[in-house]
Amino acid sequence: MPDLHRILDGLDPEQQRAVLAPRGPVCVLAGAGTGKTRTITRRIAHLIDSGQVNPSQVLAVTFTTRAAGELRSRLRSLDIAGPGNSVQAQTFHAAALRQLRYFWPRGLSWELLDHKMPLVARAARHVGLTTTSESLRDLTSEIEWAKGSLITPGEYVAHAGVAGRDTPFPHDAVAAVFDTYEAAKRDGAHLLLDFDDLIIYAGELLRESDHAADFRSRYRCFVVDEYQDITPVQQRLLEAWLGERDNLTVVGDANQTIYSFAGATAKYLLDFTRRHPEATLVRLERDYRSTPEVVSLANQVIGAATERSPGTRLELVGQRPRGPVPRPAEFADDPREANGVAAQIKHLVNAGTSPSEIAVLYRVNAQSERFEEALTEAGIPYQVRGSEAFFMRTEIGQAMRNLEAAAGRTDLPAGAETTRVVRAVLAPLGLSETEPAGPTAKARWESLRTLMSVVDEIIADQPGMTLRRLVSELALRAGERHTPAQVGVTLASLHAAKGLEWDAVFLVGLTEGSVPITQAIERGDEAVEEERRLFYVGITRAREHLYLSWSLSRSGAGRATRRRTRFLDGIDLDPNRSGRCTVCGAELVNPESRVRGRCASCRIEDRDESLVSALRAWRADRAQRRGVRELAILTDAMLDAVADRRPVDARSLGA
Ligand code: ATP
Ligand code: MG
Question: Which end of the chain has fewer CB within 10 Å, C or N?
Answer without folding.
Answer: C
